[in-house]
Amino acid sequence: MFEFRNVVAKLRVSFRAIAILLFTGIFLATGCKTSDDAAAAATQMSATAKSLSDYYTALNTILANTEQLYILNEQLLSKPYTAENRQLLKSNEAELAKRIALAADFSTLASEFAKLTGSTAAADVSASAIKLQTEVDGLAAVKASTNEQNLLKSALQLFVKAIQEHKEREAARAISDFSQGLTALFIKEGEVWNSVETVYSQIAENLAVYLVDKEAIDNSSLLKVALDPFGLTPSAAAPELKAKLAPLAKQQITARKTALDDSYIKATDAMTKSLQEMSKRIQAVAEDKPMAFRMPPITVANVEKWASQVESY
Amino acid sequence: MSDVLSTVQATFLSLDSQYNLLLAACKNTKQKDALENQYAVAQKAYQMCVDNMLSDDDAQVAALSAQLKAANQAVSQSVTEMGNISKVIDDITTAVTLGAKLASMAPFKP
Fold it and tell me: What is the ipTM for the molecules in this complex?
């Protein structure tokens, strides 16, 4: 009986030791952000990383389409497209591919970062904590005092929370610098990508106007506005009608070209703001500051819209 | 740098827009060849300008890639460490459980 009492006494000492250990852990990890902020940052970063990836992929499509235009121009208009220039365009594509890879890796990072907040690893810790809490609850069988149980339970909860938040903040610090660097690169290269889009749309417009002049297009679709209300469809316009419609076709080409350029400018502006906002929020998590907004930056919708528009060409 | 790009781009696009008119105005093969050559040169200048601007950023891209790898490593490590901490908590659970079972074998007197 005496030995059992000793065991119980030792156990009580162990509880205190565990409690001290747990509280020490908490104090080592003091000043941490709430898990919600880190989870929100991970979600925002995932959305932004996907948008960035889509943005670069759309630019890749534009470069590929530009090459197709050069090939068509060479065939139809004798505009030379030399082997050297083909190689240079390939080099442009290779440079863009590096950015696409970077964005893809960024997306992976966002996914990994999310693991710290809602994935198996964090869940494992929580599951272990719940399991341990159950065991602490079971201490009633040995009639440990309520105070001791509460002490252990509270310490345990805080400890697990502190561990999670501490790691999240460390991870946030690790990627905060990167996201700022990526944002700076994106802004710096904005003019190049703007040029790539402008050249594409202008070359396409020039060729489209040429094809209208050569009566190589069916512009009868311009009559739809008059025929659709009556359930009628236009047929290929007669040569005389086609010639009369040509100025309207050219107006449409110019209007669509302007819309394409505007759409790109809005997407780039949105991408820039998204990256800047994301960097700011990640930095807030890393620096233990409260996050004012937890929804993904709404500006990414403009990027997705433009990227999807380009991919549909 | 951006001035160079916009100027070279404007030259190339202007030539592309006027190419058909200029080609029609050419009176002989020599003139046509010269026009074609100028078009190729203008296109090359533009492509090179874009290429140079992007290549100039290679170091920055490489630095970012390295930074990203480091960040990925930090995140992965954090996830791993969390897993280890999970194991530690499991170990504590086992210890507490054993202790609780042991203690339950005898009446407790404070």
Answer: 0.71
Tell me the CA end-to-end span of chain A in Å, nearest whole number: 86
Q: Give me the sign of the Cα torsion angle A235, A238, A243, A244.
A: negative
Q: Which of A199, A158, A76 is nearest to B47 (CA)?
A: A199
The ranges assigned to domains in chain B are 1-56, 58-105
Give residue-wise pLDDT tens across range A193-250: 999 999 999 999 999 999 999 989 888 889 989 999 999 988 876 888 888 999 999 9
Q: Please give the DSSP secondary-structure letter assigned to residue A229.
A: G
Question: Has this prediction a pTM greater than 0.80?
Answer: no
A 126-165: CB under 8 A from B:
127-129, 131-132, 135-136, 138-139, 141-145, 160, 163-164
Chain centre to alpha carbon of residue A21: 40
**Per-domain residue ranges for chain A?**
2-311
Contacts with A116 from chain B: Cβ below 8 Å: 75, 78-79, 82
CB contact under 8 A, B106 and A7: yes
Q: What share of chain B is helix, strand, coil (3-state, %, to 5)?
A: 90, 0, 10
Cα A1 to chain center, whole Å? Answer: 65
Report which residue type is found at A154. Answer: S
Q: Please report residues of B whose CB lies closer than 8 A to that of A1.
A: 106
- ∠ CA A247-A252-A255, nearest 5°, is 125
Distance, CA of A136 to CA of A103 (rounded, Å): 46
